[in-house]
Structure formats: C-alpha cells, structure tokens
Amino acid sequence: MVSEFIVEPQFYQQNNPDLLPAGIDTPEELLTHWQLFGRFEERASSPYYEGLLELVQNRSIREPIDFVREFFSANATINIEGDPKRLPFAGEFVGFEEIARYIEQLEGTIFLEDLQPLEFIEEGNKLALRLREEGTAENTGEDYLRDVVQIITTDTNGLITSIESFSNTYPVNEAIAGLTPTPVDPQDLVGVPLSIDGTVNSEETRQIGINFWEGITSANPNSGFDLLANDVVWSFASGSGDFLPYSGVFNGSDPTFQSGAQGSIGILAGIVSSSNITVDETFATGNRVLVKLIEKDSIIRGSGNPLNIDLLSWITVENGEITAVETVADTNLVVQGLRPETRATQGSPGLYPLPTEARRVFDNPNFLVPSNVDPNGVFGSDEGDSFAIFDFNGNFLGFWNQFPGTDNPQDGIGDTTFGVNGNLLATSPNNDAILEYDGLTGQFVGAFVDGSAEGNELDVPVGVTLGPDNDLYVSSSGTEQVLKYDGLTGQFIGVFAEGDQTDNIQERFTEVGFGPDGNLYVGVNPELGDPTFGQAEVRVYSGVTGKLIHRITGLDFAASLEFAPNGLLYVSDDPSSVLDVSDPNNPIPVDPAKSGRILVYETPEELVGQFSVGVGNAGNVAIGPDNLIYVSNPGAGTVTGYNETGTPLQTIEIPATTGGLGRPTGAIFFTPNLLSPILQESEALPVG
After folding, report:
1. pTM of the predicted model, to two decimals?
2. CATH class of 358-582+604-683
3. Which DSSP category does 675 fall into?
4. Which of 28, 248, 487, 489 has a CB 3.0–4.6 Å from the CB of 470, allowing a cystine?
5. Where are the domains positioned within the chain?
6. pLDDT tens string 536-558
7. Do 52 and 67 form a contact (C-beta atoms < 8 A)?
8. In the CATH scheme, what is the code of domain 202-338?
9. pLDDT tens per residue across span 253-295
C-alpha cells in the first residue's frame, strides 16, 4: 500500500514502544492513533520519511544513492516546485543518480529540523500527502516553517515512480536570502479536521470541492461562495504576509474574512484577467477532498505578467457545506508575478528581472477604468508632497497621490524608485526618511525607512535605487555613505560604500544607480561652499564588495545619473549648484551664466557625447518610454525632453499654480497597462 510510505504499522509500533502496552496493536489501530495523536506529537511513522530526515540532517550511515535504490524505481521522477535560482533543490530529477543529487542539494541548502506528515488521502496507487516542513537555511541561519503537498505514485512492486512536490515556497526563499520569514503559527499547518469522517460519501465531498472552485472562478463567483459555511476556516499560503496581505488564516465569522479569503481568491479572479483555471485532479475520502487546480495563460492585471501556477486545496465538508479550505501555492511565483513587469530605470534587474519601464495600473474602486494606451509620467517636487501626472503632450492630468482623506507628509520629495512590492519609494531629505506610497492608489503608506527610529543611520538621503539583490540602496549625503536596507522590510542592513572621510571635507552624495555591469554608480560633489568647478565626479563602486573601483572626474556638480535601456549612462552636470556662500543667508551660483549639460558615457572611461541644457538648474535626468532624455529644471519649473542629439522636442511647464509644484525634482515613468484614472464626479482631481 502506498500509504505505508506515510505510516508503516510495524515501524510505527517499533519506534513508539508505548503503543503496545496501551493495547494499540493492529494496523488499523496504529493508523488511527497516528491520525489522532501521532502526527501532532511528531512521532516517527515510516522508514521513508525518517530515512530522508536522517540523510538531510547528516546523521545517516547510508549514502543517498542507497536510500534512493531502496524506495524508488529505476526511472522514478521527483519534481520539486520552485525557481532553481532561489531554491537550489527545485526542478525535475529523473533516475537514481539525479534523485540522489536532489537529496544532496537539499542537505547542502537547508538543515531540515522536521518533516512531519499531517494527513493523506490514498486512491489506488496514488497518494496525496500534506506535510509540515521546519528547517534552517544553511547559508544564513534563518529559520522557516511552511506547508508542503506531495502527490506520490507507486508501481506494482510498491516502489515510488513519481513524486510531485508543491509548497508555499516564499518562507524558505526568504530564509535562504537571509531575511527573517513571516512568523507562522504551527497550528495553522496542522490540517483540519483532526480525523476524517468516513461515514460521509467521498464522491459527494469530491463534487462539492469541484463545484466550489469552478464556481468562484466563474463569471458567477457567488455560486461557489454559497457553498461555504458561515464559520468556515480559510487558510491561504500562511507565512507570506510580506507581499500577500491576504495570506494566513481567516474565519468566516471574522470581519477580516472578506478581505482575507476573497482577497486570496483575487489572485485567481480579482487581479487576474483572462484566467484559465481547471480542476486537474482530486483525491477524496469521507468528508475530506484535495482539489488540484492548474491555472494557465492568465495575466495579472496589476503587472501585465503571465501567471501559470498549480494550486492544492484541502477542503472539509460537513452537512453539505464547506467548513475548511486550506490552499497551498507557489507563493514565490505569485510574488514574482505581482511585481511590476517593468519598472523605473533606476537600478538594474535583480533575481526577478524587472526591465526598465514601470508598468502600473490604477485599480482603486473609486475609479472607472476605460481603455487608454497613452503612457504618462509622474513628476515629483521638492517644494511639496505631491506627484502630478502629465501625459506626453504636456497635459496635466491631476495629482497621483492626493486623494480625499489621504495623509501626506509636507516635507518635500527627492529621488524616487519603485520597490519590490510595486509601491513607490521616495527620499525625504528633510526627514531623513524614505517615504512609501501605495503603488495602485498613490496613497501615502508611511515611512519605509524611519529617520527617527533607533539605529537608523540615514542623514539627508538624496538618491535611492533598488539593487540587483532587491535591497534598497540610499545615498546618505550627511554621512558620505551609501546605506543598504532590506528591500522587503526597510530594516537597516549596513554601510555598503562610503567616501573619503579622512580629509575633513564634507562630500555631498547625490543620485545612485546600478549599471548593466552590476556596479553601483554614485554622484559625489565637493562640500558646500567650495567655489571650484570641475571637482565633482561619479564614483563606481563594486556591486559585490562596495569597494571603489573607478572615478568619472571633471564634473561641476553631479546632480543626477541614469542608465538607458541600451546601457548608456547619462549624467546631469549642474554648474548652478556650485555656490558662493560668503553670505550664508543668500547663497548664489558662482557663475550664473554657465550652462548645464548632459554627459553621455558608453563605459566609465569613454565619453561618447554631451549636449547643453541651457543656463539654470540641470536637475534630474530620466529616460522616457519614448526614448527621449527628460531633464528637469527646478529653477524654471520645467521638464524638457531631448532627443539623443540634444535637440529639445518637448517642454512641460509646471507652474506654481499647479498645486504649488514649482520645483520638479525629477520624473519617473509608468504605463497604466491600458488603463488610466477617470474619477467619479464627486471625487474629481483638480485640473489645470
């Protein structure tokens, strides 16, 4: 019987000597004891899982290949769900040698504290199994807890021919990446109910499970929701709350149920368009059913990314109603899909490649969303707290982040980038903070990095970018450093790079960005009050070690830098920021008539072009999706788009009457994914 891979009666009795004196002797009694008590008491139940645990804990005298030959057929296959770049033991493994290699990779990646079978359903030569996996990432020491579902098939000799393993991948990925996974209550992973009611017709249970999922993913989702009991327990991907706020456990009688349970279904229906979800396989016994679903060729509306995913849903039925739904999915894949398909050009692709243009969608329920393919740009201002939206004809469309009832800081906005969760992050030099805005609505979320928090090293943050490792890199001008923060939590990681702090000169760090070579480029300027031109530079730091490896010298003031999709580096050189401060109350440019310029580099050593942007502030530089080079002029209140030869083709004026946006600090571009905001009349945005 395939179930003996989970509970082998003789092994269970021999390894739990207290059972026989208690009169627990027959295979049926031993299995019942395991179901009621043994699985929760973490008792050893089968030579297969105990042997696997011994191997990955490096306490077995056997070699992996010997273990594999004992339990697997010659051409057996193990398929472990997950991204091999994030989960080294993920992938398909065929035959004795490859399956042994899988075990070795598992052993080298994680220390498996426990691998506890929780429940199973056996049908013929196949078995659906749920496990609780608890371990520690070998490289980081971070602990994790997650649920795993396996479908095991055996041959007539009782050997395993295939294992399909599905899991909540995000917690273990977090641990391997050195992050602290979201805490999970072990009770969330125990399985419901404690025992299966065998008096219930399993075929009726199976059909209710099928009807539920086919209903909630149809044009009439209420036909599925109507099958839920009022006090239903809903669990989805526990431990993935960082990116999936609707993950966890919800009760039907709790006010959070609608946002939690229906929010998680939103992965399938609410935030996914053209979904194609089919029931692939079911396992049923008594009042318990596992429904395996396949979603293919769907599109996530918020990012434009495709989604192809398997979902494993354990369902309990009582009196014809569903009382529990526990769903396991590759949460790492979901997180990857929810991130913008493309993002702002600051930074470089990380583990999840995020190309150059941030794809956005307005999905606030206050909006009507007709088709609109015109891309828009969002311009920040350092004299207010707003982002104003303009189309590429220069038309002011309204404020992105000023909706009725929002609470926005009044301290100015500097550099911006999109975070790994799709929210907009902006430096706040006056607050020593990084501010976060909801990526869908523009509403102010709070301080992603709090300048008032203990241990925060940030002092006058100017530039911000997302690194290849999905962490946040911020130029801290007041400390002459580039600081690194956890891209998920905002927690301070440490100093990544720093200036020459031995010369008693207060250098001013400006914008930062990762180049296609993986190195970090930083604008560095002499101290305020140095009236000398040509002293500024762009420093190149190793993207791995943070060590200085090159300098681009001869600039007047390195105000901004940006990499184009073709790899060219554009640097904004702003002589008007070289100031005479002999009168501290009235600093003035040393040479008010000197023109600003944009410098173009193919490599740090090779200047391939430059053009003038006129007298005045040469502020932020950004490459638009129309391939124009957009340069802000905070003094004039304009943003001008130039072609590659330096010819100005478009100037957008941002007068003070436009919500006080007289000093644009830059531009960050997005495409609203064929949708653009049209507010209801009562919620209309101001227009100029």
Report:
1. 0.53
2. mainly beta
3. B
4. 487
5. 2-181, 202-338, 358-582+604-683
6. 999 999 998 899 999 999 999 99
7. yes
8. 3.10.450.50
9. 554 454 444 444 444 444 454 457 889 999 999 999 999 988 8
